[in-house]
């Protein structure tokens, strides 16, 4: 699907988008919510890379998606621990939960399609390496063409699926403003917990989109009120990750994803030799270049498969959460009746 070109708006406007939120309230979080927020803070700390050069890797993205799954489990546990049954929920909370979870599923679908697209890039390089095993001039020309096509393929900014992912993140942004809650402490705890989950999800999703983008895309840059126990660790993580991504784009490096950058470096070494000849480069060095490209390409495929597996697991966790909520609907409908929601 083609889209009109133009500057991408940032996910959030300049300034504090949360000035109308509950941080003006005197509500004190319960012990249950405090434990939830401390766990979330620790997850953000664990996601901060020890080395800035490790921003971003398949391993990091896998861990990041896994951390969202852990938070989703914590939200379900918090609902039980708060003793807040569905029958006491306001219908707008139910709508919010279902709509947000639907956005998560839509993201999984769009991003999964781009993972498949990345596998095609792997096949391109696999074909090029096979042609490089031959001394026939025509095969070498085919290898050169495959390497060139790979760089062109990766550099296509107008990828509709990645743009779809950005659009979904914008939908999540639109739900960040917390709904007005009556003076029910348990309800306020639930909505506050959901806010933390959405911030975590938006940030990790935008980073995953940037990983496969060879041209700059807008990054989630959130200003979280200090009342949240995870605010400091999240802000620290966001500063490190977004700062390194911006440096990568500013220095014209190929991609924020480390595994893609390594492949590109190997392609750059091989491609000129197929046109200009080996020159002072020995056959042994040339073979070493081919071997390095093969190794980095196989590692890329392995990382891609692991990411796909984690994304499938994430999808299942979200679906299971929706099904559990819908099952509870049949047993104990929420207050105000059930309004129609997107399924």
List keywords for this structure.
single chain, 343 residues, mainly alpha, 67% helix, disordered C terminus
Please describe what this structure looks like.
- The protein is mostly helical and 343 residues long.
- The chain has one domain.
- It is built from nine helices and no strands.
- It has helices at 31-47, 58-81, 91-132, 137-154, 160-174, 185-211, 231-250, 258-276, 283-331.
- It is elongated and about 75 Å long.
- 31% of the residues are buried.
Uncertain parts: 1-25, 337-343
Radius of gyration: 23 Å
The number of distinct helices, counting runs of at least 4 residues, comes to 9
Instruction: Give the strand content.
Output: under 5%
Helical residues, percent: 55-70%
Describe the secondary structure blueprint for this structure.
Layout: H1 31-47, H2 58-81, H3 91-132, H4 137-154, H5 160-174, H6 185-211, H7 231-250, H8 258-276, H9 283-331
Brief characterization of the structure:
This protein is mostly helical.
């Amino acid at each position: 699907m083609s889209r009109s070109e133009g500057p991408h708006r940032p996910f959030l406007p300049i300034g504090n988008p949360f000035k109308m939120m509950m941080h003006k309230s005197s509500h004190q979080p319960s012990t249950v919510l405090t434990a939830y927020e401390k766990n979330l803070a620790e997850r953000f700390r664990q996601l901060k890379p020890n080395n800035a050069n490790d921003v971003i890797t398949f391993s990091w993205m896998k861990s990041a998606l896994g951390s969202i799954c852990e938070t989703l489990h914590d939200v379900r546990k918090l609902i039980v621990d708060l003793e807040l049954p569905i029958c006491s929920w306001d219908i707008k909370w139910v709508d919010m939960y279902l709509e947000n979870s639907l956005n998560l599923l839509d993201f999984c679908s769009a991003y999964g399609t781009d993972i498949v697209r990345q596998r095609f890039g792997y096949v391109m390089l696999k074909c090029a390496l096979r042609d490089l095993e031959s001394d026939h001039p025509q095969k070498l020309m085919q290898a050169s063409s495959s390497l060139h096509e790979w760089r062109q393929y990766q550099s296509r900014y107008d990828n509709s699926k990645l743009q779809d992912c950005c659009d979904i993140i914008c939908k999540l942004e639109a739900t960040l403003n917390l709904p007005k809650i009556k003076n029910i402490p348990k309800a306020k705890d639930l909505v506050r917990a959901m806010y933390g989950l959405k911030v975590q999800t938006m940030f990790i999703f935008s980073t995953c989109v940037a990983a496969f983008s060879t041209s700059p895309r807008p990054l989630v840059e959130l200003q979280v009120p200090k009342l949240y126990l995870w605010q400091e660790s999240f802000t620290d993580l966001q500063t490190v990750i977004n700062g390194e991504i911006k440096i990568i784009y500013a220095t014209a490096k190929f991609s924020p994803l480390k595994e893609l950058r390594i492949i590109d470096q190997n392609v750059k070494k091989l491609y000129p030799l197929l046109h200009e000849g080996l020159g002072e480069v020995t056959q042994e060095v040339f073979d070493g270049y081919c071997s390095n490209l093969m190794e980095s390409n196989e590692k890329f495929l392995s990382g891609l498969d692991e990411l796909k597996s984690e994304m499938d697991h994430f999808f299942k966790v979200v679906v299971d959460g929706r099904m559990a909520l819908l099952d509870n609907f049949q047993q104990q409908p929420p207050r105000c009746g059930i309004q129609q929601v997107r399924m």
